[in-house]
Amino acid sequence: MLKLLALLLLPLAAFADDRWLDIRSGPFQVLTNAGDRPGREALNQLEQVRDTVGTALGKPDLTTLWPIRILVLKSGQPAPLTLARDTYTGALVANLPTPRELVRECVRILIDSNARRMSPGIEVGMAEFYSTAQVSGTRITLGQPPPPPERSLDWARMHLIGVDPAYFGKLRVLLYNLQHGADPEPAFRNAFGKTPAELDKQAAAYLAAGSFQTVTIGGRALDPRSEFTTRPAPPLLPQIALADLRPTAAAYQALLQAGAPAVAREGLAFLALRERHTDEARREFASATEAGSTSARCWLEFARLTPDKARPALEKAAALNPAWAEPHVLLAAIESDPSKKLQELKTATDLEPRNAARWRALAEFNLAHNRYPEAAKAWTAAESASVDDAERASIHNSRLAIEQQRLDFEVAERKRQEAERQRDLQRVKDAAMAEVRAAEARANRGQPAPPPDRRVVGMFDGPAPSGKIRGRLTRIDCIGKLMRLAIEGDGGSVTRLLIRDLAKVIVMGAAETTLACGPQKTIRTVTVEYFPKADAKLATTGEVATIDENP
User: Fold this and answer.
1) What's the pTM value of the predicted model, to 2 decimals?
2) Residues whose CB falls within 8 Å of the CB of residue 280, separated by 6 or more in sequence, listed in order
3) Residues 513 and 380 in one domain
4) Which of 97, 239, 331, 336 is the most exposed place for a label (fewest CB within 10 A)?
5) pLDDT above 70: percentage of residues in the chain
6) Containing domain of residue 167, as a range?
7) What is the pLDDT of residues 388-442, one digit of tens each?
8) In what helix (H) or strand (E) does residue 378 lie, and over which residues does it extend?
9) What CATH number corresponds to the domain at position 393?
10) Residues near 341 by Cβ (< 8 Å), separated by ≥ 6?
11) Distance CA 87, CA 196 (A)
């Protein structure tokens, strides 16, 4: 047992004599055992690239969803950036050039975390172009070509835009327009006076010629010696970073023995998850959460594997990383309250607007709840965020279909409302006739009528009225005992109808409707049934039978 423990602790002992420094700025953390200067220089390069990309995107202080941790080693091998437990972790070696692949991945992460979706060719070209940036203090040299096999048309297009004097300085205009939903055709014309096809043709010839210039620009005005704070690395942090850099069960078991249970259990859980050992992963994630894990990814994966504890675990994940959309997506999936589900879906699209799946889920929810304008907006955003031609065509067709669905729904809704009004009208008519019959019966028995317990607004008997109009009641002229209603239709035409005896008119809608003489202070929309019977002297076209005041 003691021999096994000694073997587990070997990775920690190997670095015990090193003096590790911790240097941070923005989303970057540099851990180095190679001394202060290599760590500062590496961090300065990353910050200058971040500032240059941010300037191009029109966003001066780019952030990342997860921190980027770089180990600057005094010896060893560089390692590309990969997402570990809750950080992007990579390594470079002091006094050697920063690997282009590491810088390219940093640029890709910065674009993915901050920019609205642009065409894949533009985003790939940016990552490749800025990956060869050479930094000296506050001076940045752009345009150094990668090895010939890696020179793509996307890279050549971006190199042409970023270095050629005819285009230099106009990249920001192009990226601004693309991020705000402009189609490539007008976006390229607005920025360069050329179509995308014309610029691609020029870029292809430029790539074939093989003569590439560089340009040196001023970067962010910072002094790495005074603006980067260097401090001794916290205990166990270098060992944690090394375990995340090259994750193995032995490395995490050593951390467990060294007194970092939450981190160690997280690492073991992710290893088990990668190997599809679900039960083991569930146990390790549970142990990590019990040990006080502060990893949002740990809590989310625990929620996936433990449905009965999913809600509190997802809420914890969302609190640990408020910029992460995934916890809200999963909360929406288990939410039964439509209003809360809608809020979770909206939050997911706000946090991850580049993800077409997020917008598609929001569009489908709105469509299922007859929220057609909102669904159309979400489908439009989904189409803009999609990078797959087939998916984009499917989304486009779904967006076009919404208009017909909306029209069909509105027609059906109008029919439903009209049928409801007709039922209400019939109920009033039936009640009025019942009162007439009851009054007749009481009169025949010689009994007095009982005190009314509600207001009788009118009644009529006989044939049903054949005329009907819906419009705005704008004026009532009182002519002796007669009343003349002026009803303005949608086209502005005015129909005048006569009331000879208000007691014989059925009034529905607002329970205490009053018909006041003169111009109406409150314009109400009404539906009036009437008997067509023109009166040339009074300029009316019929006599009112019912008035239904619509809400």
Assistant:
1) 0.71
2) 269, 272
3) no
4) 336
5) 89
6) 21-227
7) 777 777 777 776 777 677 676 767 767 777 778 878 778 877 777 777 677 666 6
8) helix 372-385
9) 1.20.58
10) 332, 335, 365
11) 37
